[in-house]
Amino acid sequence: MERYALGDSAAFGTLYRRHETRIWRYLERNVGNRATAEELMQEVWFAVAREAPRYQPTARFTTWLFTIAHNRMVDAVRAGQRQVSLDALGYDSASVIRQLTTQPASGPLAATLAREQGSALARALAQLPGEQRDAFLLHIEAELSVDEVAAVTGSTFETTKSRLRYARSKLRDLLSEFA
Is residue 154 domain-resident? Predict the structure, then answer.
């Protein structure tokens, strides 16, 4: 980011390629609408370009980037755009399942099991309250620490830790058949 801020335009491409998929997944899973997620994705990267001269590396770049994504997502929800309807992810559950599961080991049995587990995980995520889902996805998808998730969401460390604990507990209960 510092190279881009100094005028190295190729550095922006590197940043985009490195973080594009995780930002996209985070936005799409939280707004449940591909068109809205695409708009938010553009807004996030425009903001990165616009804020580059003022960027200060006081935290990891991913924390800063996901803060922008989180704020854009919250703004969209407040503006009345569709928020999480992970039930709606059922219309495109195949892509969600592919994103949420690793590659099947091999063979049709492993592929079927991976699809079933992915579907169950998508349904379980849909049942989490929004703040818990958001914290969980930031922690897992963006690989942010609890401190970083708290910074992104504007919550305290303890609140974030509780949200993650409750999310894990509920997911564990909802996915107990796969344990």
Answer: no
CB 59 within 8 A of CB 148: yes
Confidence of residue 136 (pLDDT cuts 50, 70, 90): very high
From the number of C-beta atoms within 10 Å of its C-beta (0-12, 13-18, 19+), residue 12 rates as middle
Q: What's the CA gap between 143 and 76, in Å, rounded?
A: 23
Question: Of the candidates 158, 161, 172, which has an alpha carbon nearest to the alpha carbon of residue 138?
Answer: 161
Residues 36-64 have a mean pLDDT of 90
Mean pLDDT of 53-78: 88
Radius of gyration of the chain, Cα coordinates, nearest whole angstrom: 17
**Confidence check: pLDDT of 14 > 80:** yes
Asked if the structure places residue 15 within a domain, the reply is yes
CA distances from 125 to 40, 99, 129, 175 (A): 21, 13, 9, 10
CA distance 94 to 42: 24
Residue 6 sits in a domain whose CATH number is 1.10.1740.10
Q: In this structure, is residue 8 part of a structural domain? A: yes
> What is the rounded distance in angstroms from the CA atom of residue 65 to the CA atom of residue 70?
9
Q: What is the pLDDT of residue 104?
A: 46
Cβ atoms within 10 Å, residue 24: 18
